[in-house]
Amino acid sequence: MSEPCFGVALGSGSARGWAHIGVLQELDAIGLRPQVVAGTSIGALVGAVYVSGQTEAFAEWVRKLTVRDVFGLMDFTLSGGVVKGEKLFGFFQKQHQNPDIETLNQRFVSVATDMACGREVWIDKGPVLAAARISCALPGVLRPVQHEGRWMLDGGLVNPVPVSAARAAGAELVLAVNLNAQLVGRHFSREGRAAASSAEDRERGFWQKVMGFFESDDDQPSMFDVIAASINIMQDRITTGRMTGDPPDIMLAPRLADFAMMDFHRAEEAIAEGRALVRDRADEIRARVRAGAPREAIKAR
């Protein structure tokens, strides 16, 4: 019996999404390269880099990101979101190849949300990084972009872990990476800080000054805390509903509850967690993929 078509569904989750890099790296290391990659939001970005063969260079870059680097890639605006995203994705396009999806050896699809009607949109044609950008438009944070004359919002609004998109692209066995567990109550930039070196403290101090611009003057939640809590609650509920209706065959849930939404400078931790998840279940995952057993999800660690 031939092996089933193996696909991965990479979920939304802002900075926690760097864990996708580790998952994909470790899957390659154990000889399981997915034929289908579906991604939502940060999952679409990491997936796009992966299918275009640039994962290692990308991982090396994100590991070096500091708080100042993250801030430097933000082009602030009050039109449609806090950040335009043009500077960030313009940088990606300068640093990385941007082939058309149709020319890739793997099938790729990103998930977005039509702002006008709330319809889920799957993008599987055109430049791969453009497809990823269309999927990344967190409400109130990243400005939406136009696709075929329509404004698109973040795919996490409708399909935070795109198992259905992976199956529609031909995957017969799907490994899903769910970044949205244990998040309700988490905030934008201030949760879960452990003791650190003075250099790290200075970096955090700089970030807090930036975020302080948006803080309230009393004990009320800040604008960013409201955004982060709302997104976390929404994605937790939607993820639960979608996975009940269309469960993956294998599900992994990185333990990154202490990550705030904008902790993109903590890539080393997230990548290590992603690799550890796959490494710990390598025999189980490999046997499942190669055997093509009936669907019964391997539960998250």
**Which regions contain 5 or more consecutive residues with pLDDT less than 50?**
77-82, 185-199, 295-301
Main sheet summary: 8 strands, mixed
Pairing-aware structural class of the strands and helices? Answer: alpha/beta
Mean pLDDT: 81
**Proportion of residues in β-strands:** 5-15%
Radius of gyration: 18 Å
Number of helices: 11
Give the SSE string. Answer: EHEHHHEHEEHEEEHEHHEHH
Task: Please count the beta strands (DSSP E, at least 2 residues each).
Answer: 10
N-end to C-end Cα span? 29 Å
Shape: globular
Helix percent reads: 40-55%
Quick take:
The protein has helices at 19-29, 42-51, 55-63, 67-72, 86-95, 128-135, 163-168, 198-212, 223-245, 267-280, 282-291, and strands at 6-10, 36-40, 81-83, 107-114, 120-123, 140-142, 145-147, 150-154, 173-177, 250-252. By secondary structure, it is of the alpha/beta class.
Describe the model:
With 301 residues, this protein is of the alpha/beta class. The chain has helices at 19-29, 42-51, 55-63, 67-72, 86-95, 128-135, 163-168, 198-212, 223-245, 267-280, 282-291; strands at residues 6-10, 36-40, 81-83, 107-114, 120-123, 140-142, 145-147, 150-154, 173-177, 250-252. The strands form two sheets. Strands 1, 2, 4, 5, 7, 8, 9 and 10 form an eight-stranded mixed β-sheet that branches. The chain has a two-stranded parallel ribbon with strand order 3-6. α1 (19-29) packs parallel to α10 (267-280) and α2 packs antiparallel against α6. The two termini are 29 Å apart. Residues 77-82, 185-199 and 295-301 have low confidence and may be disordered.
